[in-house]
Prior knowledge:
The chain is mainly β. Helix content is 3%, strand content 50%. The strands form 3 sheets. Strands 3, 4, 5, 10 and 11 form a 5-stranded antiparallel beta sheet that branches. The protein has a 5-stranded antiparallel beta sheet with strand order 6-7-8-9-12. A two-stranded antiparallel sheet has the order 1-2.
Amino acid sequence: LPLHAGTDAAAYRLSLGDADTGNCSPSSTSLCLDDGRFRAEVEWKTADGADGAGRVFPLTGDAGAFWFFSANNLELAIKVVDGRAFNGRFWVFGGQLTDVEYMLTITDTATGAIWTHHNAPRTLASFADTNAFGP
């Protein structure tokens, strides 16, 4: 597990390189979260048939966003939270900023488990899953 420490001036996180770390390799279409344990990818499709892969916009170690059409227009923000201290699971939250159809796929690169979220065309809704990934 990561070690957390803090002072009045700063917070620190140290990963000890155990089984909690994964092997995600960041790219323009793969967002790595939680020290590379989770890989998030998005495929989108418009009503007129255009499609593509969401492009990554990293935010923090546990959160990031994707854009589809322009880097100046984010379409989806997501984060993976380590909730194991509360329910033994990793949690996934998403703030949707589009009504474009998409499929979000998050892979736990340490275990191989996969979690998906499909957004239907012309639907605008955020999401949360506090049971997304087991330990």
